[in-house]
Amino acid sequence: MKTEVVIIGGGPSGLLLSQLLNRGGVDTVVLERTSRERVLARVRAGILEDGTVNLLRHAGVGARMDSEGLPHDGCFLTDNDVMVRVNFHELTGKRVMVYGQTEVTHDLYDAQDARGTPIIHNVDDVVINRAETNSPFVEYSRDGARHRVDGRYVVGCDGFHGVSRRTIPLEKRTEFERVYPFGWLGVLSATPPVSQELVYASSEHGFALASMRSENLCRYYVQVPLSDNVADWSDDRFWKQLKMRLPHSVAADLVTGPSLEKSIAPLRSFVSEPLRWGSLFLVGDAAHIVPPTGAKGLNLAVSDVYYLHDALISALKKRDRSGIDAYSSRALTRIWKAMRFSWQMTTMLHRFDDEDSFAAQMRRASLGHLSQSETARRDLAENYVGLPF
Ligand code: APR
Ligand code: PHB
What we know:
By secondary structure, this protein is α+β, with helices and mostly antiparallel strands. It contains 13 helices and 20 strands. It has helices at residues 12-23, 36-41, 50-58, 63-68, 88-92, 101-115, 164-167, 235-245, 248-251, 297-317, 322-349, 357-372, 374-385, and strands at residues 5-8, 28-31, 47-48, 70-72, 74-79, 82-87, 96-98, 119-120, 124-129, 137-142, 145-150, 153-156, 174-189, 199-202, 208-214, 217-225, 259-273, 276-277, 280-282, 288-289. The radius of gyration is 21 Å and the shape is globular. P-hydroxybenzoic acid is lined by residues 45-47, 198, 209, 211, 219, 292-293, 295.
């Protein structure tokens, strides 16, 4: 099989890149390790930055988002019973959209199906060959046979555990990492949201987040030790801890219900540089991971796609390689700013086991400064709604 761009990974970044390239006249093949059902069963992020919303509309997949998504003007950060509202719209003129990553992925699959783009699921043993040349090809196994796809370029959208980052020789890569000593236990429940806007809650019991997917589907999180596993957490224990960490006035309105999904995710900050090796490019979680505290994971994958789709179309259709030559440094500039914001939100809101009383005071002072300073709130708002592409 021959194509112009081979995309490894059928998650949001792979599908969005494929959709944008196809609309720019570039042929693609998407290779996905799991089934479509498994991809769509994942419960992931739910906040879309302003730039993400606009790019999804540009890609022709914004209709359901615009009709079913929830535009949010702001969010709350709390320290026990002290509540600070950050009004994104007042401070930046922008808002965010609450619309699940699962729904974004659904919409992208529908659009790609409508175009007839080859998305090959359940592939195994993917190997990227001759990535450093102008004639790379990808091999994979499926249905007991070995297959090959030749392309002018290969893009790794295969997430943190994928094959593409590891195809770049170790001596060519520089990796930066911070592993946090806690995780997030997330629960999905068919209940009305405790608050009309997200609540990022810091407390002496630990961090909690009250989020949502719709008016009757909620996503809640509590910080847990890395040693915990889901079996340690009954629904009752989860709801009790969530109530203890939210401000009393908020917790009083909490409607609990059975968990539809319950999982623990570790928190990590990670960047692998560069994002290119010859004809191979890295996008999204394949190249970087952020702790979910800043709601940047999906949105950073989208900004990588924004830069790369334009660059590949220029290279393939206009023989202008300036975009692909600049991709890595251009994407990394925005990646590091989001990395910083996500790290700052995580250290400001979470209780670290070994922390001393000074650290707790710093958390308190950070939230106190937010409540007193419009400049501090504007800085947080600008990062949260998304820095310009
Ligand atoms: N071959 C083919 N596909 C692979 C391989 C492989 N070797 N390894 C992983 N994949 C697939 C995974 O099954 C997954 O569907 O690549 C896809 C990667 O998707 P994501 O992990 O969702 O990464 P990305 O598309 O960059 O989106 C980033 O997803 O995980 C969240 O928090 C993350 O919100 C962020 C967003
Ligand atoms: C979510 O709704 O899953 C969510 C929202 C905001 C975050 C992280 C996760 O910062």
